[in-house]
TrEMBL record:
Transmembrane stretches, start-end: 41-59
SUPFAM superfamilies attached to this UniProt entry: TPR-like (SSF48452)
GO molecular function: RNA binding
UniProt protein name: Pentatricopeptide repeat-containing protein
Organism: Kingdonia uniflora
Length: 335
């Protein structure tokens, strides 16, 4: 295309962002700047901020936020919401809260984003405070807002508060519940040891059939609280519902512990069905470079230095008589 204007650039960058090609989208955005393309920055800033959110690249996100401030777009809801989510994804909730405060006309999406972002960063109490402030300002919550509220109650260990908000959502706001609401309620109850109540909640209060994620939530809590009998029952249901869910096999295998016959049975079933657990992956940004790591990964160029440093840390922990609790460590069933 010989004559590329702001519209064609925005279409390309937005399409790449929506199809999980964020890194390429950022490269093209830089190329657009080099070409000196003129136009309304508002059109593409939401897209590039969303890319920074998906990739959790704080340096780039700050640069684009600087452009937002420079052109006076921080007060606009779409830009404000995108900037809020970018900082929250990078773990910077102070900056995220400032961006939220700069939005002139906050709507339910703005408030819901703030509440859920607080939850994702482990700040359940702050999320509930934000929900209270939202109600005081007369903003009517929606079903997604209540997902954040229930999530917050779980992080803040407020079981009764969660039950109250669930009832308010149904009776006061007359919202049609989603399967995710029930999953959060089961997580809230089971996480803090109310396993029987969680099971009762599933069997008696759910108008829809429980899905895979809900069963995994309950199974994980059974594992944490070492309720073997309930775990076997839930695990059996889960494998009937979703026989290719690798996480269920891992949890069940670890449940059997010293029962080698049970462990072998689960692993054989997993092998016969061709199930393999995908390796966990984590990443961190250092000096504008994103470093990704998988379980057991030795492909990083500094892996020897990293492992040596880990050995030093382990020796220091032992010297300080630190004894890790390995009773809840999940073993790799492929080993």
């Amino acid at each position: 295309m010989s004559n590329r204007d702001i519209g064609s650039w925005n279409s390309l960058i937005s399409s790449l962002a929506q199809n999980s090609e964020g890194a390429i989208a950022l490269v093209l955005f830089r190329e657009m700047q080099v070409e000196g393309v003129k136009g309304i920055f508002l059109l593409y800033l939401v897209s590039v901020l969303s890319v920074c959110t998906d990739l959790a690249v704080l340096i780039n996100g700050k640069q684009f936020h600087g452009m937002v401030i420079k052109h006076g777009f921080g007060m606009y809801r779409p830009i404000g919401n995108a900037t809020l989510n970018m900082y929250a994804k990078c773990g910077c909730m102070d900056e995220a809260s400032l961006c939220f405060g700069n939005i002139v006309s906050k709507n339910v999406i703005s408030w819901t984003s703030l509440i859920i972002d607080f939850c994702k960063n482990g700040l359940g109490d702050e999320a509930l405070k934000a929900f209270g402030q939202m109600e005081m300002e007369g903003v009517v919550p929606n079903k997604i807002t209540f997902l954040g509220v229930l999530y917050a109650c779980s992080h803040a260990r407020l079981v009764q508060e969660g039950l109250k908000h669930f009832t308010i959502m149904i009776n006061s706001y007359c919202f049609t519940t989603m399967i995710e609401h029930y999953t959060f309620m089961v997580d809230l109850l089971a996480r803090f040891g109310y396993l029987e109540q969680a099971l009762e909640f599933i069997e008696e209060k759910m108008p829809v059939k429980p899905d895979t994620k809900l069963h995994i939530t309950l199974l994980s809590s059974c594992y944490f609280h070492k309720n073997v009998e309930l775990a076997k029952s839930v695990g059996k249901r889960l494998l009937e519902l979703e026989p290719r869910e690798a996480g269920a096999y891992m949890l069940l295998s670890n449940f059997y512990g010293r029962d080698l016959e049970g462990v072998v049975q689960v692993r054989r079933l997993m092998m016969d069905r061709g199930i393999r657990k995908e390796k966990a992956c984590t990443w961190i940004e250092i000096n504008r470079r994103v470093h990704a790591f998988e379980s057991g990964d030795r492909s990083h160029p500094l892996h020897r230095y990293i492992h040596n440093y880990l050995d030093v840390l382990i020796k220091k922990m032992k010297a300080n008589d630190y004894m890790p609790n390995t009773s809840l460590v999940v073993q790799n069933v492929d080993e």
